[in-house]
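Figure 6 in text form: structure in, sequence out.
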């Protein structure tokens, strides 16, 4: 080194190791708390953002279709075990919402999205007509072929929704 230059001074903070260790421990505790919170509730329950599906076109369709299905009596009341009574006016509203979505997005959807929307609308409209004409009673017997009436139908994939989308199975 030249005569005018000083050697760089190294300042060692004696607390840096303790601070780093405390921070590491705090992060580990937070991760542990998150993991224990995930599996602690009943099936389908979510304690936070981890259980919320991603915002997507399919999730929007699923949400509106689920409301329509509930209004068609496709879900059981968890407290009583009885089917939730059908409200055809509300069901028609939700089906019409999907119809508006189909009309307004025509030409702007991928082939898959368009097929999902078309299939969902077809299934919901068919179930609505069955309910409106009395073809599928609240008891959900064998009327209507495969799957029977809506209350006992296989709703997890029968509405054109991709497998694993969730939200459509009335069996939470």
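Output sequence:
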């Amino acid at each position: 080194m030249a005569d005018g230059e000083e050697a760089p001074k190294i300042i060692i903070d004696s607390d840096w190791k303790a601070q780093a260790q405390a921070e590491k421990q705090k992060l580990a505790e937070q991760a542990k708390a998150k993991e224990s919170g995930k599996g602690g509730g009943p099936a389908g329950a979510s304690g936070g953002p981890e259980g919320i599906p991603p915002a997507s076109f399919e999730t929007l369709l699923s949400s509106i279709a689920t409301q329509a299905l509930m209004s068609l009596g496709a879900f059981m009341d968890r407290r009583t075990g009885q089917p939730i009574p059908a409200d055809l006016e509300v069901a028609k509203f939700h089906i019409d919402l999907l119809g508006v979505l189909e009309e307004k997005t025509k030409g702007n959807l991928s082939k898959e999205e368009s097929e999902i929307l078309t299939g969902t609308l077809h299934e919901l409209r068919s179930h609505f007509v069955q309910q409106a004409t009395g073809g599928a009673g609240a008891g959900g017997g064998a009327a209507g072929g495969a799957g029977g009436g809506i209350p006992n139908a296989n709703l997890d994939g029968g509405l054109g929704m991709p497998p694993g989308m969730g939200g459509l199975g009335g069996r939470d």
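Caption detail: Helices lie at 16-38, 57-71, 88-105, 111-132.
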